[in-house]
Amino acid sequence: MEEPKRYKIYKIVMLVVLTAFITFMITSIVLYTHFSDNEVGKFVLTNSNNTDIETEINKLKKVIDEYYLGEVNEEDLKEGAIKGYIEGLNDPYTEYITKEDMEDYLADTLGNFVGIGIYMVKNTQNNTIEVLSPIKNSPAQAAGILPGDIIKSINGVEYTGDEMSVAAAKIKGEEGSSVKLEIIRGTETLNFDIKREKIKVNQIEGKMLEDNIAYIEIPSFDEETANDFKSKWEELEKQNAKSLIIDLRNNGGGIVDEALEIADFMTEKDSVLLYEIDKNNNEKVRKSKNDPIINVPIIILTNENTASSSEILAGALKDLGKAKIVGTKTYGKGVIQQLIEFKDGSGIKITCEQYKTPNKNEINKVGISPDVEVELPETVENVLLVKEEEDTQLKKAIEILKSEN
């Protein structure tokens, strides 16, 4: 890797870790920083008074050397110690990434992966792995995986929420191979055998509705999402679009810069779009860079699965008076992670900042409330498969825009 690339800075915010099938969705930019192997060891083992951690590990090592009956793999012990140290933060978004997992992690960050296509999140209340939602048109959706499903076991092995990264590695695999999932759904236990495929996360869809209302759905924010959105809008604009509905329901997030670029299309130059605040209360302001290219009434559709980068876009447009929000309150994920990659190929994804809307409203564990709250009817069993005739949220958005056109 060339030196400039090695130190290229990207930052990332996450709802749910992207692995080959997507665990946490990446939602900001990734920071690459390299340390020597010795520095990694110092950072983990001696960054405390009197080297307490190193002393404790050496004490345990002596016991293992003297009493342990099985075969000892020093690399596995080292990796386990580092993972345990990081897990002690009790932060669902901070994790240690091994050298073996790093390549897949970085590929998945950009939305290029092979898997079954699900967003997962750690359920902290009962330490389980919960399906946030399957990706549209994915093998998981085709098999019948639903939001709220609990993944109990993978290929016959049970996993807890604390083991989500390990579980992610077990779910991914070669294209064309299969994975067996045991799912808990309410009081039922269900079994699925799902074939892995190449998954395309970002599938922007758009169409013209009645009364020249343009509709664009953004499933996630990946590389080129902003360009795809712009192209779709220009296509609909040529069809004489007079207003716009942006559907962010079930959008778990993605690359923050892509969400900010889309916000830039609809806001005045130099408008504040986002505040990023670190542990020392240092504040970074993200502003729009260009004059708006979309100047029509806008409504954003949200639900409880609208998270992270989606909340950044929705919050910015709401605060700046550029859009109304229709639907239900969003997920509430408003913290930022950096990925620090060490020279040995491993790394740590660590929570380092929080973000706030232009009006400095907090998002984390709060969410964004809609301007017009609309629930889907009880007859809707799957929020990913809502029939248009049952979509009360979309109907309300159309009703509002028709009155403004």
Shape: globular
CATH names the topology of the largest domain as 2-enoyl-CoA Hydratase, Chain A, domain 1
CATH architecture of the largest domain: Alpha-Beta Complex
Low-confidence stretches: 1-50
CATH 4th-level superfamily of the largest domain: 2-enoyl-CoA Hydratase, Chain A, domain 1
Number of helices: 11
Backbone structural class: alpha+beta
User: What can be said about the biggest beta sheet?
Assistant: 6 strands, antiparallel
Radius of gyration from the CA trace? 22 Å
Count of discrete domains? 3
Task: Please write the CATH class name of the largest domain.
Answer: Alpha Beta
Separation of termini? Answer: 54 Å
Strand content: 25-35%
* Average residue pLDDT: 84
Helix content: 25-40%
Number of separate strands: 20
Give an overview in words.
With 405 residues, this protein is of the alpha+beta class. It has 3 domains: 3-100, no CATH class; 112-199, PDZ domain (Pdz3 Domain), CATH 2.30.42; 201-333 and 356-404, 2-enoyl-CoA Hydratase, Chain A, domain 1 (Alpha-Beta Complex). 28% of the residues lie in helices and 26% in strands. The protein contains 11 helices and 20 strands. Strands 1, 2, 14, 15, 18 and 19 form a 6-stranded antiparallel β-sheet that branches. Strands 4, 5, 6, 7, 8 and 9 form a 6-stranded antiparallel β-sheet that branches. Strand 4 and strand 5 form a beta hairpin. Helix 8 runs parallel beside helix 9 (256-264). The longest helix is centred in the N-terminal third of the chain and has 16 residues, at 52-67. The radius of gyration is 22 Å and the shape is globular. The model is unreliable at 1-50 (pLDDT under 50).
